[in-house]
Design goal:
single chain, alpha+beta, globular
């Protein structure tokens, strides 16, 4: 992992977010959580970053993986073959 900080848009009640947090912890990767509102219509900050409103969404430099815990975990593990299909420019939308 590069030295850029990882941001995880998530909610504590979301089971998919929990799996990503667990993977980050297991891999001892530092990250910053950004808790989003329960109501998707109120997730304007997330929409500005990723072009969608689903969680979990990981932002790592120019990499944005939106609304896909399995792809996020694959990226974190470094298994690019699985994650490559969803790694995008922050202005593009994935996992909608």
């Amino acid at each position: 992992m590069e030295n850029e900080l990882i941001y995880l848009y998530q909610a504590e009640w979301c089971p998919y977010c929990h799996t990503v947090r667990a993977k980050l912890t297991d891999l001892e990767i530092d990250y910053l959580t950004i808790n989003v509102p329960r109501n998707k219509a109120d997730r304007d900050d997330l929409f500005q970053v990723s072009g969608q409103r689903g969680i979990p969404t990981l932002v790592h430099g120019d990499v944005v993986i939106a609304d896909d815990d399995e792809a996020i975990n694959a990226y974190l593990e470094g298994t690019d073959a699985q994650a490559q299909k969803v790694i995008v420019n922050p202005r593009e939308t994935v996992g909608v």
